[in-house]
Amino acid sequence: MRRQIIMVALFLLTTCNLYAGNLPVEDALVSVPPMVPPAITRDYPARVIVRMETVEKVMPIADGVDYMFWTFDGSVPGTFIRVREGDEVEFHLSNHPGSKMPHNIDLHAVTGPGGGAAASFTAPGHTSVFSFKVLNPGLYVYHCATAPVGMHIANGMYGLILVEPKEGLKPVDREYYVMQGEFYTKGKYGEAGLQPFDMEKAINELADYVVFNGSVGAIAGENALVANVGETIRLYVGNGGPNLVSSFHVIGEIFDRVNVEGGTLVNENVQTTLVPAGGSTIVEFKVDVPGTLIVVDHSIFRAFNKGALGMINVEGAENPAIYSGKQFDQVYLPEGSAIQSIPGETQKLVIASSLTEQIRFGQRVYETNCQACHQAGGTGIPRAFPPLAKSDYLNLDHQRAIDVLLHGMSGKVVVNGEQYDGSMPAIGLSDHDIADVLTFLLNNWDNNGGQIAPEQVVQRRLEGKSVQADSGH
C-alpha cells in the first residue's frame, strides 16, 4: 500500500510540473461559424483545454446538392478557437466511432514538428492528447494532415485559431468568422444529388464550388451577417484551400485596417486583400450607410458562378452626404444599339422531372441570370426594368415570353400599366433553363401559374421568332 501511495504522489508531482507552475486551467473559448467567441479578458496565461471531434457527415453544399464532408466538430469550417499569447494548450482530438478514416490536426499556431499532426493521429473511436505553448500572436489556420492530405482538406477539414496578443485586441462592435474553401465533385456545379469527391479535378485544380463557410449561401440571404450603421466590423477570414488563392473583397466597403496574412503587419485603406491557401487575414471597417454589402472572392466568376458570395445586411439611417443612392435615371440608347446576345451554357446538367423540380431549378437560373435587373422579389426597377411579379405581360402570352428569352427584345413595352423603353439581351440559356425559369416565374409572386415544357422552347427556337416593340397586350 505504501508503495502505491508513493507512486500516486510521484504521478501527481509529475503532472503538476507539466502544468508549468500551476497555471489556472480553463476550457477554450470556441464557437461555430460564422460566430466568434468573446474576447479574452484575463491578463495572465492559462492552461487551456481544447476538446475537438472529427466527424464525417453528409450535408448540403448547394440547393439540392449533398456532399460527404469530413469535419472538425461537425461544421465547415470547424469551430473557431480563441486563446491568448503565452497560453499552454492541452488539445484533445477525438475521432467519432462512425468515421471511416483516421484523422489528425495540424495547427499553424504550433511551434513543433507537423504542427501537432503526428501527435494527434487518431483512429476512429479513439482520442489523442498533446500539448503546446502558443508563442506568436496572430490568426492561424488549422487543418487535417492525414494522407492523402489534399483530400482531407478538400473535404472540409480546416478552421481558424486566434492567438490574441498579450495586450488584447481593440474592442469592436461585431466580429464574424468567414473561411473560404473549394470543392471538387464528380458532377458539375449545381448537379443534384449526393456528389462524391473527384481526385482528378482536385489535382488539376478545377474546382466546381468555391464557397464561404462550407456551402453556397452559407452567409447570404437568410444567413446573411448583420450590423448597424456606425458599427465597426472585424472579420476573421481564412482560406482552407486546398489550392486557390482568395481575392477577398466586400463590395461597397473599404477595409480601414488589414492584418496582412493574419500577422502583426497592418495595412490601411485596402480594397481587396489576398488570402493564400492555408492563410488568413483580419479586416476591420466601419459601416457608414445602410444596405446590403456583398462579400466576394473577386476572382469574380467564383462569386457569381461557383458560390463565393456572402452578404452583410446593414440597418440604420441614410446618410446622403456619404452615399446618395440613384438621383437620376433615363434610358440611354446610342445610335446603332441593338439586341445583344450573351452566350451561356448549351446543356442542362440536371433535367427536372416534376413541376416542383422545375420551379426549384428555375429559381437557380433566375438568381444567376435575371435577379440583378429584375430584383429578388421580381419587382423590377422603376423606369428601367419591368416587374415580373404579377406581370400582365408575362401571364398573357407564354410563347412571347419564351421568344424574349430566346432572342431578346428591344423597344417600348407596357407592363402593368407602365411604359418601359430598353433592350433585353438574349442570354444564351438552354431549352431546359428557359422552360424552368419561366415555370418558376409563372408560379411565384402572384402570377397566374402554369408550366413551360422544354419541347415548347425547342419549337419556338426552330420557328426563329423574335420580339419587337409592342404594347404588352
Brief account:
This protein has 473 residues and is an alpha+beta fold. 19% of the residues lie in helices and 32% in strands. The chain has helices at 2-18, 149-154, 199-203, 301-305, 355-369, 371-374, 392-396, 398-407, 431-442, 454-463, and strands at 25-27, 29-31, 47-62, 65-72, 80-84, 88-95, 106-107, 127-133, 138-143, 158-164, 174-183, 193-195, 209-212, 225-228, 232-241, 246-251, 255-259, 266-270, 272-275, 279-286, 291-297, 309-315, 409-415, 418-424.
Defining key terms:
473 residues, alpha+beta, six-stranded mixed beta sheet, 19% helix, globular
Please explain how this structure is put together:
It is built from 10 helices and 24 strands. With 473 residues, the chain is of the alpha+beta class. The radius of gyration is 27 Å and the shape is globular. The strands form 5 sheets. Strands 1, 3, 4, 6, 8 and 12 form a 6-stranded mixed β-sheet that branches. The C terminus is likely disordered. A hairpin with a 6-residue loop joins strand 17 and strand 18. Helix 8 crosses helix 10.
How many strand segments? 24
Task: Report how far the terminal alpha carbons are from each other.
Answer: 101 Å
Class from helix and strand fractions: alpha+beta
Envelope shape: globular
Tally of individual helices:
10
Helix content: 10-25%
Mean pLDDT: 89
β-strand percent reads 25-35%
- Strand count, sense and closure of the main sheet? 6 strands, mixed
Question: Whole-number radius of gyration?
Answer: 27 Å
